[in-house]
Amino acid sequence: MPTKDEWKSSRMESGLVFVFRTHLTLLMSSADSSNILKAVPLSTMRTRTAQRQEKYSETAYRALEGKPDYHNALSQVKLQIATQSTLLESAVIQARLYHETKTIRLANGTTPHEGRIEVFTKGVWGLVTDSSYSNRPVYNAIAAGLACRLLFGPDYGGSVVPKHEASVRFGVARGRAILMSNIVCKGNEKSLFDCQWSTDTSTSHEDSLSVVCKTVPRGCNGYVEAATGNLTSPGYPQSTVYSTDTDCVWKIVNKAAKIRLSFTKVDFNGSTLTSTNRLQVFDSDAYSSLASVTSSTTVTASSSEINVWLKAPAGSKGIQFHAYWDAAPCIESISSSGYIRSPGYPQQYPTNLNCTYHLLKRKGLLASLSFSNFALSNMVQGVCGDYLQVFDGDTELSPSIRGPMCSTTRPADITNFNVTSTKVIVKFTSDAVNTSVEKGFEAYFSTSEPNPIRAGNYTEDKGTFTTPGYPSAYNREEDVIWTITTKPYKTITITFHHLDLKLCCFDDIWILDGRTSYYYRGSIRSIVSETNVMQIRMESSLDNRRNKINASWTTECRQVFTAFSGSIMSPNDTTFDSASADCTYIIRQQPGYYIKLQFSTINFEKDKSCGNYIEIHDGSTDLFPLLGERYCGGTLPPTLNSTQNILLLRFRTQSGKNSFSLTYSSHPKECSSGLMKDSDGSFTSPGFPIGYPSNTYCVWTINLDQKDLQIELTFDDFSVGSQGTQCQNAFVRVYDADTVDASRVMTTLCGTTLPPKLRSTGHSMTVVLNVFGSLTNANGFRATYAGRRLNGLFPYGTAARDRTLGSNTYETMEVTIEDGFPFGDSLREAVYIGTNGIISFQKGSAWPRLDSSSLVVCAYCAYISNIQGVYYHLYNDVSENRGVLEKASSEVQDFTGMFSFSASTVLVVTWDRVQQSFPSLSASASDMGDATFQVALVTDGAASYAIVQYRVGHMTWRYPGRWYTIEMGVAKGSVTAFQPNVYSGTEYAYDIDKYFGNTGYKGSWMYELGQIPSDYRQVCRDWHSRNKVYEKRKERETGFANLPKCPCSRRGFFRNIVNQWRFHRK
């Protein structure tokens, strides 16, 4: 047994070693947050420390039992454990601090120097994205170089990996948050977070910024802020051989003026201009290319920044150059609107300036100049040293509107009234001396129309109006407005007798009636208002030489009501004659709502012919049937309910005093939801086909009594919500269950396109209509359902005795079909199977492309690498292949409803666990998944179909970005016969097995391929197809007498051939 000192020493040593190792392990693993947090969460550390404390305490008591200094030894153990706990917590804290200071990394690269740029903030790693690489090449190049220098040091630079390549090489990080978008860096920042960036939600994970970092020559990349200077290629004037493909980007800034950059020497060193060997200058926006430099030249930026980008290929000397920059001449042009500023604003402007601003406008418009800041030198002895002057015209000899202006007092807004000019000129001059107050100016230039002419404000019941100067053309710029106002119970009808407009750009008519506005540029006959006020506005342009109007108006007793409820009464006006009334009242509600009328009073002069009456039509015109009857006398009509969302009331009288009053209200039709158990049935949305009401929620549940059936749901008519990235106002959602379960959503539908058939995986389905806003022009839907048997893939592989394709990726396998295969309107003798998910009816068509002019079935058209997994089998023998033929017949019958269809030939082609290939990329991709899909070409000799099935759960290709599309569908040589799959060319094609096809099954689609007319040759082929089974049997000879007589004869064949020959010979 060890002594007390030996025990204490060994225990303390082992404890310190444990603490040191743990501390070191924590720091070494701190590069990855998931590792550190998983390895040493603080709570776990404390728990483990407590457990060790118990363990050490028990050992100490056993070792020290009976010893006189047992209390002292125990105190040492407790001190040791407390120290260990403190060290452990310190290690965790230090590791976390170290980790959080690392705010950038490259992810998913094969080496540490490449990958997706990710940044760390607020405890998470996220993406840096850019929605448009092509529009922001310089910004991304600067950000790439900065990221590499931050990660690996000042000798490094970076090259941006194109998105279409990065998505394959580094993957699409769907689970990562997008933390930075559209980053703008200068190149001298200490962190990417010092750059400008946004959180643009329009970017996607495919837009991740990815880079390859590499060492670059000294002088490659830089940020310079100076009024003048020199810029040279790396190593200039000596030649530098670039070891890698290199990008060098320089940003030059002169805050006081625009930059002029002059190249004095450009040497290609015997190379040529290519995409990887070029020298390009970009404007201040880092997008607009000012020049692709091939020789000595001078370029000028639009403002105070300019960008130079040199690309050099590996192993070359690249392009050598020398350039210098200085301030450009101070001249600027602005069209229509924009800011003008003194050079260098808001910093102090330079001395000895002579700047000219050309403010361009359309002839006829007014120009305005509004100053937001103004600080020039003060006037000395009546003279301005620095001043601004504005000229109203096309030259500096035009009259001066304002100026010279100086001092620090902000000038009043300036407006020019010279509508015949196309320009306003602003001159800015500074002297040789600047003071501290001279910060410059900022002003906003805008153009506007002159005030309109109000040619008439009419209150009469009828009249005419014309353009000023009619019948001559109205040539002025000012718009012309006419306003017509009548009695509250009347509406206005305008008729245009003569309307002639320039019909271009700025000449048109707006008509507003207080509720609706109408816009016209073509011919107009008449317009009827819905209120008692109408305004007509003719927009005109200067010197149009055409605009003229001659129109008249009339009024009538008519009112339109659109509120959900209200009251209507006969006119109570001294000028209204109730003895000869002819009034119309229209109540219009949104589709799906119905109207209830309740009369309060009715007082009509009695007459035997019922000449004083009110009648209600259940629709928009008097051609619709009456609700009730024609009401006259003094008896109140009963409560009336419409069956439409519009009612028309006619109030007519011939004598005496007559009046009425009523109230109306609207209500939606109730949902006819419920439980449906029959094997087939139908249902409609409320109000169909007129339209559904707003704020409606309806649920239909289908739960078949026959549990071995699936449900096939078909929408026969569909118009719900609006189609787009989101369903606006309303949608239909279908659930693969008998309850509303978010995890069982089959699809969400909206728009006006008929949805494909949907099939449940079991015997139940739920349909929900959710209307959460008002919507017009949407009539709802009508749906039918039926129980169907289960389906699946055709047999394939070696067990099905299939054949396999050859080893050439771009060749096709020809399969001859003895009886021919209808495709389009002709009979094809052969089919060509391609490895790349394509079946063609043209020899040699192996490229995975779906084009309307081709003759192909694109099952899953994409480049495929492991072509050994492609199988095919031709079934045309009834005796041996009855199961396959019957299955194909059943599926076609189920889809088309043609129950007489009987398959005579089926060609099954299967791509089993094939992988996607990317031949255009130099870098290979790994772990991209595989896919299994199948095509069955089916024909009965006259009609043909393609059954395309994507094996559910086995379509696992990893989405490589929108640049690698998968095309699906059928092309028959013309646009009218083109049948692309709805998911073709979209990201959803990579998950095609998750979506319901037009057959109603997940991942199952059917296309009609061809139809040929039946003739005696087809009759003969049918006869042969039915009876060729006897050719291989001994019963053929003995049973020949039992065969049907062949309708074909040698004489008939001979005559047919000879007649064809004679016809073509002619």
UniProtKB/TrEMBL annotation:
Pfam families: CUB, NIDO, SRCR. PROSITE patterns: CUB, NIDO, SRCR_2. One of its GO terms (cellular component) is membrane. It comes from the Eukaryota. Residues 859-1012 form the NIDO domain. The keyword Repeat applies. InterPro entries: CUB_dom, NIDO_dom, Sperma_CUB_dom_sf, SRCR, SRCR-like_dom_sf. Keywords: Disulfide bond, Repeat. Residues 104-214 form the SRCR domain. This is Cubilin.
